[in-house]
Design goal:
Radius of gyration of chain A: 32 Å
Largest sheet of chain B: 2 strands, antiparallel
Strand order of the largest sheet of chain B: 1-2
Shape of chain B: globular
Structural class of chain A: alpha+beta
Order of helices and strands of chain B: HEEHHHHHHHEEHHHHHHH
CATH superfamily of the largest domain in chain A: MetI-like
Oligomer: heterodimer
CATH architecture of the largest domain in chain A: Orthogonal Bundle
Radius of gyration of chain B: 27 Å
CATH architecture of the largest domain in chain B: Orthogonal Bundle
Number of strands of chain A: 9
Number of domains of chain B: 3
Structural class of chain B: mainly alpha
Number of domains of chain A: 2
Chain lengths: 465, 365
């Protein structure tokens, strides 16, 4: 113990209860403030990423917390424009004979010459992803833009606020287009005050205001990047929607892994906990050892094993290489050591009496296991389900090795990497963030519902890498 | 002839264990032995492996990329493990109160560690872009640095005066007495607001700090320091794992008997003495667990490097785990599986050493 000099009791007042109570309250207040600050620290990046995934440009400077996609006024405007285009208000489109009306208000600064603005529907390929190759009819081929008229002029201190109106008509006989991009060219010094729908970009050093799609309807307007994630990515071989396919693949692989893990880990865990057989201790030690080995130490051989179809066994059912197959991905992860370990620990903690009586009644180990033990194991199986699903859903390294082509075969994590390669080149962060947010949603829902299992599981197995 | 009871039980056990034995045998035992074997051969995934003895290991320690990977891995492991342990411990001690609603915050703090590394890495890459939020926050901090200093100074001064005052009245006020601290914070806020509106103007015209975090070969703090992209990954990993470890520490702190603190207080021990003499010894097993888990986890860091990909120079972020992958699938070049396997064996040995040290220390206790 360090030397301490206690204050002589005679010099020290005994604090009255109020004094102590004040401290208790103040401490609670400070701790809650700290908790809140930490929430911002730990949740902030995730929430800010979710918010920014709605933005036109997620790397804008300075970053704003109020993208125009969050304003209800704009939702109403998007709904109206969607209806004007002849589609629904939620998912708009542009039908023959329909006309959209837009208004834009610019501030013409004092001392600056007033000029007419130019409106054009450009021929723009949607997006930069794999979907950019899939082009439909262009709005520029069918849209007829009316002459621009000035409908209001308002004198202000700093200049004149001029409101322009124009309309766009689908002049074709029978061509429905899904998107109408729009460019408004104006003098550089004009300042945008208001518009029916806010423009998505400023181009050419402030000379052009550009809209992605004025007939988008509410959903593609607010969730523009999310809409792109689903509509811009199609498989080049099968034409299927890639992102939906990846989500399906991830669910499929994770689901099967959960089932196989539940079945095989409880069987093996039970055997390790209760049965006697030669080599039990050696098996247990090796199991612990295998839990510590990094995947990167094992994947070379595992890759070759799958490539050669598990020593040629896959030829028995007519298959060749198991690379780029879900069979291969799943077979190599049928049941993990940590799952067996969790089940073993659980079974060891169960009282033996029930099993003893079952055995005396002449039940086989299989009967004892299925009728007596498994019903008792529900809580452990629940926790294991969550943990396995989370592990399989988030797994990145092994799918990256096994699934390389075609893109249809990817799971969501590998797909996100390919997203990052496709869009990251152009620093087009919108779809990347949107894809990341979507792929985090199932786990977050699972976590919200089954928190307890997560917390138990994490303290059980430690932390992922 | 009937089998003996023991033989029947063994037969049933192996039946129960069959699927597990299959995966363990093929994908762990066989895989590990084969990696070991490959590390003594020259192999390109196609032609048959050729035995070359210890040549790969000799080459390994002469290869620049491997040495870079080794250096990065050790730097990364040590820095991340140390800082996340200290941070987690500090937060846990600060939050070790019986409070309502702690479970709610606990769930919030778990969020980063349950989300997949791919999602977290993508979000961090975005935050670390030139025009990203990190650079923006740095810019704001630069602009308001003086204000923050003024605030801290005011709070410290107010607290000092109050504590001295209370002590002269004979009350046992501690340096960080919470009730006084609340008053000091309020004084600080009001004072800073008054000073910044009436006395001085916050610095203006500070240029936007557009630091290049990812695509750079620069190091920090100097040429001997850590590559800047690796520092970004370090920050990411500390952020994801510190809250989880904090919760492990919190659980450990709840087990420390209250009487010990009371006894220390009766002895007149300061907070710091109570922390070093009571808290730390009790937390030792947890600290050990956290350090081991941290080391094992950080030694295997791979995902972040793979996802960063061409956004950062390979030498700045490569780790041992990625080194192995790099030589098995080197893109355009010929795979050098032997070299990769030797690297993998080295990584396994490193992990094993950490685990053995932990076992050894636990046994010694």
């Amino acid at each position: 113990m360090a030397q301490t000099t206690p204050v002589a009791p005679s010099l020290q007042l005994t604090p009255d209860p109020d004094w102590i109570a004040r401290r208790r309250w103040a401490r609670a207040g400070l701790v809650y403030t700290l908790l809140l600050l930490l929430s911002i620290l730990f949740m902030g990046p995730l929430l800010f990423a979710t918010l920014s995934s709605l933005k036109d440009n997620p790397t804008e400077w300075p970053p704003s917390l109020t993208p125009h996609q969050l304003s209800p006024r704009n939702w109403v405007a998007a709904y109206r424009l969607g209806r004007q285009g002849g589609g629904s208000g939620w998912f708009g489109s542009f039908h023959p004979g329909h006309t959209l009306t837009m208004e834009v208000t610019y501030l013409v600064p004092a001392g600056s010459q007033e000029q007419m603005i130019q409106v054009a529907v450009p021929r723009r390929v949607p997006g930069a992803g794999a979907g950019a190759v899939r082009t439909g009819p262009f709005a520029s081929d069918v849209a007829v833009v009316s002459p621009v008229e000035v409908i209001r002029r308002e004198e202000r201190e700093d200049g004149v606020a001029v409101t322009y109106r124009f309309s766009i008509t689908n002049g074709s006989e029978d061509v429905v287009v899904d998107r109408v991009p729009l460019d408004v060219t104006k003098p550089q010094e004009y300042v945008l005050l208001d518009s029916t729908l806010p423009p998505n970009r400023v181009e050419r050093r402030g000379r052009v205001h550009s809209w992605n799609n004025v007939t988008s309807g509410v959903i593609p307007y607010v969730f523009y990047n999310y809409h792109r994630v689903f509509t811009e990515n199609y498989s080049r071989t099968t034409g299927r929607n890639l992102f939906l396919t990846w989500i399906g693949n991830s669910f499929l692989v994770a689901g099967i892994k959960v089932l196989s893990t539940l079945a095989f880990a409880s069987l093996a865990g039970y055997a390790l906990a209760r049965m006697r057989f030669p080599g039990k201790n050696a098996l247990f030690v090796f199991m612990l050892f295998s839990m510590m080995l990094p995947n990167q130490v094992l994947f070379i051989s595992n890759y070759l094993v799958l490539r050669d179809g598990i020593f040629g066994l896959s030829r028995l059912w007519g298959g060749g290489s198991l690379l780029n197959t879900f069979t291969g991905l799943i077979l190599s992860g049928l049941v993990g050591s940590s799952a067996v370990f969790i089940m073993r620990q659980f079974f060891i903690s169960l009282p033996r009496e029930l099993e003893e009586s079952a055995r005396i009644d002449g039940a086989t180990p299989w009967q004892t296991f299925t009728r007596v033990v498994l019903p008792l194991a529900k809580p452990a199986l629940g926790a294991l389900t969550i943990l396995t699903f989370q592990g399989a859903w988030n797994d990145f390294f092994w799918p990256l090795v096994v699934l390389t082509a075609p893109q249809d075969k990817f799971t969501l994590t590998v797909g996100l990497l390919s997203f990052r390669l496709t869009y990251g080149v152009a620093f087009d962060w919108g779809p990347i963030l949107a894809g990341a947010v979507i792929s985090a949603v199932p786990i977050i829902i699972l976590f919200a519902v089954f928190q307890r299992s997560f917390v138990e599981g994490i303290s059980f197995t430690g932390i992922k890498g | 002839m009937r089998l003996s009871r023991r033989a029947r039980e063994a037969a049933w056990s192996y039946l129960f264990l069959a699927p597990f034995l299959f995966t363990l045998g093929v994908f762990f035992l066989y895989a590990f032995l084969r990696t070991l074997y490959f590390s003594f051969t020259e192999y390109d995934l196609f032609a048959a492996p050729r035995w070359i003895g210890l040549e790969n290991y000799r080459q390994l320690f002469g290869e620049r990329l491997f040495l870079t990977a080794l250096r990065n891995t050790i730097l990364y492991s040590v820095v991340v493990t140390l800082s996340q342990t200290v941070l987690a411990l500090a937060l846990a001690v600060a939050l070790n109160q019986k409070l309502r609603g702690l479970t709610f915050f606990r769930s919030l703090y778990y969020m980063p560690s349950i989300t997949s590394s791919v999602v977290i890495t993508l979000i961090f890459m975005w935050l670390f872009q030139r025009g990203g939020a990190i650079n923006y926050l740095i810019t704001v901090a630069r602009q308001h640095g003086r204000t923050v200093l003024v605030f801290v100074a005011l709070v410290a001064a107010a607290q000092f005066i109050q504590v001295v005052w209370e002590r002269r009245r004979g009350l046992p006020a501690r340096p960080l007495d919470p009730a006084l601290l609340v008053v000091s914070l309020l004084v600080g806020l009001a004072g800073t607001w008054l000073l910044s509106t009436w006395v001085y103007q916050p610095a203006e015209g500070v240029a936007a700090q557009q630091i290049n975090w990812l695509n750079t070969r620069r190091r920090w703090p100097a040429a001997w320091g850590a590559p800047i992209p690796l520092i970004a990954i370090m920050m990411l990993n500390i952020w994801t794992t510190a809250p989880t470890f904090m919760l492990l520490f919190l659980a450990g702190l709840q087990d420390v008997p209250r009487e010990l603190y009371e006894a220390a207080a009766v002895d007149g021990a300061t907070r710091w003495v109570a922390f070093t003499q009571v808290t730390l010894p009790h937390l030792q097993p947890v600290i050990f667990l956290v350090v081991t888990l941290g080391l094992i986890g950080t030694l295997q860091m791979f995902d972040q490097v793979a996802i960063l990909g061409d956004q950062a120079p390979l030498e700045s972020v490569i780790t041992l785990a990625y080194y192995v992958y790099h030589w098995v699938f080197p893109g355009g070049a010929m795979p050098r599986v032997g070299l990769a396997a030797a690297g993998a064996v080295f990584l396994a040995i490193l992990t094993l050493i950490v685990v053995l040290i932990q076992r050894w220390v636990l046994r010694a206790q």
